[in-house]
Amino acid sequence: MKLKKILFVHSVGELGGAERMSLSLIENLPKSDFTCFLATPETGEFTSKALAAGADCLLYDAIQPSFSSPLKTLKNSHHWRKLLSKIMPDVIHTADLLSTRSISGVADKLGIPIIFHAHFPFSLKFAQWALRKPPKKIVFCSTDLLNCHKEILDKCSAQSELEVIHNGVNTQLFAPVVEKNSRPKVGIIANLQERKGHKEFLEMVSIVNSEGIEAEFHIIGGDIMQEPREPLLKQLSKDLNIADKVVFHGQISDVKPILGNLDILVCASYEEAFPVSILEAMAMKKAIVSTNVNGIPEAIEHEKSGLLVKPRSSHELAEGVIRLLRDSELRDTLASNAMHRVRNNFSVESYIEKWALCYRACH
């Protein structure tokens, strides 16, 4: 069988959720069948780990085609044509709308199919701007995300094939560890964007603390996007008189040691697609209290493998956390069910197999 060349194109070189899923493919696609390449406009942890996994990494200029900038557009097209002619990939896997728009014109002229991997919601206006050359296929990481965008895509990318491939996690890498904490530890793992709900998390901490429950609270994640929010959140913790209860860890490259030490993981997001952090916590046999937004209910079954609450409700988050802190039997049951659910439904092996079929069918 001829080796199939896959070119991954991302708009960043650091590791976010979308980058972690592409890295999983680069690391785990069978080398006997696939050769992987990665193009980014910058270097970072993502490119370093992709190189370590055997991928060739290339840099591109983050320039968008525009009638108002003909020289830059021409330069960008020439750069992409030169890069693609050198690699001659069988499939281009883009991870966001910006990278999709940047490469789609040249890829279309060269007859190279694009698979756009949709990780986040997008608007009709943005899609109309970015999908000027509709991709061969759009793969969504949750059924909810696909359903929410059908009407949008009917208007700007009707010929694109649509598919759902849920994110997967390496259940051996994220295996349970035996940790006995003298004081329960509750954490949130997310970059410090407003939509991740850190405000409600801190308000939840205040409510739990007011009940006289002794626990530690951990915020794992840093300011990797938008304006810095860590100072604002630290000030809020002081205003709520819980600064001594909360540890800010910042951005860390390996969450496993901290995640393994938690008793409860909280996801307080207002908006998510299908968060990898939840799958990792499930694999590590953690009890989870999460908002019931977007694709999260596709991973967590309420009262079976976790507790789901309304978004933007610090009181409901607190009720869920307090319930688990006071009922260790329920906490253990939910954690065990979560571990089995992710092994049966969201393993990296299943994820790789589905993507391999997707690539092979794309021509």
How are the elements arranged and paired?
Blueprint: E1 4-9, H1 17-28, E2 34-40, H2 45-52, E3 56-59, H3 70-87, E4 91-94, H4 97-110, E5 114-118, H5 124-130, E6 137-140, H6 143-156, E7 161-164, E8 185-189, H7 198-210, E9 216-220, H8 230-239, E10 246-250, H9 256-260, E11 264-267, H10 276-283, E12 287-291, H11 296-299, E13 307-309, H12 314-326, H13 328-345, H14 348-361
Parallel strand pairs: 1-2, 1-4, 2-3, 4-5, 5-6, 6-7, 8-9, 8-11, 9-10, 11-12, 12-13
Describe this structure as you would to a colleague.
With about 375 residues, the chain is an alpha/beta fold. It has two domains: about 5-170 and about 345-360, Rossmann fold; about 185-345, Glycogen Phosphorylase B (Rossmann fold, 3-Layer(aba) Sandwich), CATH 3.40.50. The chain is built from 14 helices and 13 strands. α1 (about 15-30) links the parallel β1 and β2. The longest helix is centred in the first third of the chain and has 18 residues, at about 70-85. The protein is elongated.
